[in-house]
Amino acid sequence: MGIEVRNLVKRFGALTVVDAMSFEVQPGELVALLGPSGGGKSTVLRIIAGLETADAGQVWLDGARVDHLHARQRQVGFVFQHYALFRHMTVAQNIAFGLDVRGVPRAEQQRTVERLLQVMGLRGLGDRMPSQISGGQRQRVALARALAPTPKLLLLDEPFGAVDAKVREELRQWLRRMHDAVGATTIFVTHDQEEAFAIADRVMIIQSGRLEQHGTPLEILDHPATEFVARFVGDVNVLTGRVHGDHARVGPLLAPVSGLPDGQEVHVVLRAYDLKFWREDPGVATVRRVMTIGDRVRVEALLDRAGPDGQPAPIFAQFPRRSSLLHGVEVGCRISIEVTRARAWPGVPPEPAS
Known about the structure:
The chain is of the alpha+beta class. 24% of the residues lie in helices and 35% in strands. The protein has a six-stranded mixed sheet, sandwiched between helices. Strands 13-12-11-14-20 form a five-stranded antiparallel sheet. A five-stranded antiparallel sheet has the order 15-19-16-17-18, with no helix packed on it.
């Protein structure tokens, strides 16, 4: 099912939570709506599903306008963060609920339930009650219940927010496999960047009710369209510098930039993996902390003369644990820094030429 949202507007009193938003989702895509909490992501999802009514704009599914239709007429499956299973029903009965309401014959219900139990990795659990299975399994039951009536569109609102980190990682991988196997067009809301980039075909960055940028995870990471996207996505340093030719000077560092006039003050966004640190005297920064995080090492330092009024400014980078750049890097040592890539946006207008 293809989706088109045209100039969607939603207000709650004086607050505009969706502000003239437009986008398209192609049939069979898995798309993430990513952004800060309160940005309007869930409201957009609920409008598409028919659970909220827009103040303006249109929703089209498979080339037909549907914003005037009741939720039951849209053939949409919806899964909330809190899965809300029927506690008095077994797993199988929960999955079959929507089919039973629609009067599907029992034999067909049973075949569908058995197929979904298999697809969801829940085989042998059909007779258990929700209280007898884990949180991750309950979330998969909720997804199976949404898929049972064969919706053309699956909408997931923070689907893994109620489970712990390890289970969430397992469910992410499982959702991608399930999507590829079932083929339903899927949109899911999240504020977890890792989750969005790990499983989505495309990511839409939403902030204050507006669509800031959409694209593949790599496009979003490598070519942020706005300063907000550059700051929001990934681990970044944000420092102030001034343009000199094809570089911006940030304290003792030179960061490559383009398309900005000489003298322009800029906000320079430096990703953690676009920096090289190595131990060297006299260097340009002093290491404050070294942390091992899984297979990565995060090094935090104070950069000379890069803050307001020439004060030291914090800067950090991440490296593989066995990187040769980490040799001798320890708290209190001096380091040199190379900027391999930077993004910059105008701060204040450039100083007039003298």
